[in-house]
Amino acid sequence: MEFKEVNKLPIDVKETIKKRVSTRSFLEKSLTNDDKNKLINFYSTLTNPFDVDVRVQYISKETGAENVQLGTYGTIKGAKDFLAITVKDEPFAMEAVGYQFENLVLYATDMGLGTVWLAGTFSRKDFKNIMEVSNDDLFPCISPVGYPAEKRSFVEKIMRASLGSKNRKAWNKLFYLNDFNLTLSQEDTGKFETSLEMLRLAPSSTNAQPWIAVKEEDNIHFFCNYKNNISDDVKKIKHLDLGIALSHFHQTAMSEGLDGKFEIQNIDFSIPENMHYVISYSSK
User: Fold this and answer.
1) What is the mean pLDDT of residues 59-77?
2) pTM tops 0.70, yes or no
3) Which of 88, 193, 251, 257 could link 189 by a cystine bridge, Cβ 3.0 to 4.6 Å?
4) Is-same-fold flag (13-162; 171-283)?
5) Is 55 helix (H, G, I), strand (E, B) or coil?
6) Residue pair 184/195 in contact by the 8 Å Cβ criterion
């Protein structure tokens, strides 16, 4: 399979990744037309390495969806606008969604807008009532988009505390050297250190961070970490999370001047039962 080249984001990607937080409390107003157009026009320029068509629909409670209930089970406060993502079920579909939409999230963050990935805490039926969704479309996630409120709601404070949103797994839980027997120290990462650190900071469903990276010479092999007996829907979210992480890694690598590419490689070392190989990044 050939993987596509994608454009480098026109922002300071490392500082934006550090600045990005999941926003659940918004000012009760829609985006200005200028901000809406800027965001949507930028999305039209985005692609993903997997050559998958990831579609985003803009939904506003103030223009066309005033009388439609858009349920988020009480997790989101004040949001007037939403971005809904659909994709056909094909190889790398979830990785493509994660990669491409996270690039838009980072761009929105640079604009001063708030977002949060929602996969399980929204009513798909409500949103489908006002969307164009084919029977064979996957509808994995949405994100509210708007201006962050100065004060977080009580529900948001509880969710941030329970999810441990500020916490990320340590290097020795995520990164390995040559195989799964030796953890990767930051001293041994070489040119990949910053890219892997930005990957480590990526958001994920319930902050699970289901990704593992193995450095082997000039290659980084990416794996998705989950038990084989989980449902297909949960597996899809795990792969979407990996796509988000790949966005952070790849965009940082490009910003660092690395001239690498994604490819499928033969993995010669032993792979643990719950590790699922997805893709490699090669930079000579």
Assistant:
1) 70
2) yes
3) 193
4) yes
5) strand
6) no
